[in-house]
Design a protein that fits this description.
Layout lengths: L1 H18 L10 E4 L6 E6 L4 E8 L7 E5 L2 E2 L10 E6 L10 E6 L2 E13 L7 E7 L4 E6 L7 E6 L2 E2 L7 E5 L3 E6 L8 E9 L2 E12 L7 H21 L1 H7 L1
Keywords: Disulfide bond, Glycoprotein, Immunoglobulin domain, Membrane, Transmembrane, Transmembrane helix
Protein name: TMIG1 protein
Main location: membrane
């Protein structure tokens, strides 16, 4: 009887396994993107489309694939999900620089390969700007520019290298902002300033026409108020001093 019950138990276990098979293991499965089995960086340029192809390696069955752009999932057509999947970026633009595309196994998202786009482009800035500033005021000229690889900036005044004065000129820059500040503007600062941004891929420029205007006379507000107060007090005390005569008249 004991052997019969054990046999019945084994039989029931086998029946359960047949009805509810264990999910296949993802051990040994690998993905590759453009023949890279590990995360990598893809350098490209503006314009031409690029294609990313994800392929399942070492699989004996159909495997569904998922694509992500950053944290957002990419919509794929039904015929572009099983064992091999492709995404196309067209056209490539500045906003794609630094973006991560990730291909993942649908049933085990820990199996994945990521590619970071390194989109290279020259500095992009142009145009002109006219600034009016009163003498002895402060003014700031700002160039906003994106570039990859990072660019550097040189400032010119009337087509000559700008001679910086530590007491009046200040330069500030980040990867996308180049700023020239001039304090206590003088008539000699009048002229055209040019921001020239250069990288190995090209050059961008922007001109600023700085027009320094004569200092406006300052209205002596405090002095006028003081004078009005004095006059009012004088009239008031004069009335008080002569109130008896005024009342007699009335």
């Amino acid at each position: 009887p004991g052997e019969v019950s054990r046999a019945a138990f084994v039989c029931r276990v086998w029946l359960r396994m047949l009805k509810c098979p264990c999910p296949p293991s993802s051990a040994g499965l690998e993905l590759s993107v453009n023949n890279h089995a590990a995360d990598f960086t893809l350098s490209t340029e503006l314009g031409p489309a690029i294609s990313l192809s994800c392929l399942v390696q070492n699989s004996s069955q159909a495997e569904e694939l998922l694509w992500y752009r950053g944290d957002g999932q990419v919509d794929l057509k039904d015929g572009n999900k099983v064992n091999i999947s492709n995404v196309c970026i067209s056209p490539v633009n500045e906003s794609d620089n630094g973006v991560t595309f990730t291909c993942r196994l649908a049933r085990d998202k820990s199996v994945q390969v990521s590619v970071i786009l390194d989109v290279q482009f020259p500095p992009q800035l142009s145009g002109e700007e006219t600034l009016h500033v009163e003498e002895e005021k402060d003014v700031t000229l700002t160039c906003n520019s994106k570039a990859n690889p990072q660019a550097h900036c040189t400032w010119y005044k009337d087509n000559q290298n700008l001679t910086l004065q530590a007491s009046r000129h200040e330069l500030y820059q980040t990867s996308e902002i180049f700023r020239l500040s001039i304090s206590t503007v003088q008539m000699s600062d009048n002229g055209t300033y040019t921001c020239v941004v250069q990288s190995p891929l090209g050059t961008g420029t922007k001109a600023f026409h700085l027009i320094v205007e004569d200092k406006k006379p300052v209205f002596p507000t405090e002095a006028v108020i003081a004078a009005v107060v004095i006059v009012a007090l004088t009239i008031f005390f004069g009335i008080v001093a002569r109130k008896e005569k005024i009342f007699k008249v009335w």
